[in-house]
Design brief:
The chain is of the alpha+beta class. 37% of the residues lie in helices and 15% in strands.
Length: 198
């Protein structure tokens, strides 16, 4: 195999990760740039009143909450049988759907225990804002890039069903990518959560 041929999949993988990271940075800038209200300064030499200032208008509903800048990463341990969610057989698709819903629930539960032990953000206590889903769909000749993206997209549609308290149906922003290095059916989900716990 030529040197250029060996570099092809690696360059494609790096391009996907780069696009994902740039997209996340853009969302962080837009949603995470909330500013605190500025308090008026008392002029120098002005008499201080003993009456406390009246509270300003409530900021409830004034805008979206900021995002936690560190993503929570979960590993959804699907298997080769779960790839059948893209197949034509309805019974096989239903079995794969049930299996993947259970796998997403298990991944969120496993992260909860691990995060509490490490004093990190617990995904189960937050609401997802942005999710990047990396799927792996393996065929006899290797990983299919387009099938992997379609597999990740199919699982994205199941995440609200699996854990509705974390993954609302709307307006969570999902992006799907392929992962060349994981086992068949495996998914990695990078979740940016709102900064304020529910």
């Amino acid at each position: 195999m030529s040197r250029a041929g060996r570099r092809g999949p690696r360059a494609e993988l790096l391009a996907g990760w780069l696009f994902a990271d740039l997209l996340i940075v853009l969302v962080l800038v837009v949603l995470g740039g909330q500013q605190a209200p500025v308090r008026p300064q008392t002029p120098a030499g002005a008499a201080r009143s003993s009456v406390p200032p009246s509270p300003g208008p409530s900021r409830t509903g004034a805008g979206p909450p900021g995002l936690d800048r560190t993503p929570v990463v979960i590993e959804v341990l699907g298997d080769a049988g779960d790839q059948r969610i893209l197949g034509a057989d309805r019974a096989a698709r239903d079995r794969a759907r049930r299996s993947l819903v259970a796998a997403v629930r298990a991944a969120v539960a496993a992260q909860k225990q691990k995060a509490r032990d490490r004093h990190e953000v617990v995904l189960a206590d937050r609401r997802a804002a942005v999710c990047s889903v990396f799927g792996t769909y393996r065929t006899g000749s290797g990983v299919g890039s387009e099938q992997s993206k379609r597999y990740a997209e199919a699982v994205s549609r199941l995440m609200h069903e699996a854990v509705p308290a974390v993954f609302p149906a709307d307006p969570v922003f999902y992006e799907q990518y392929h992962d060349l290095g994981a086992p068949a059916g495996h998914l990695t989900v990078k979740v940016f959560v709102f900064a304020d716990p529910r």
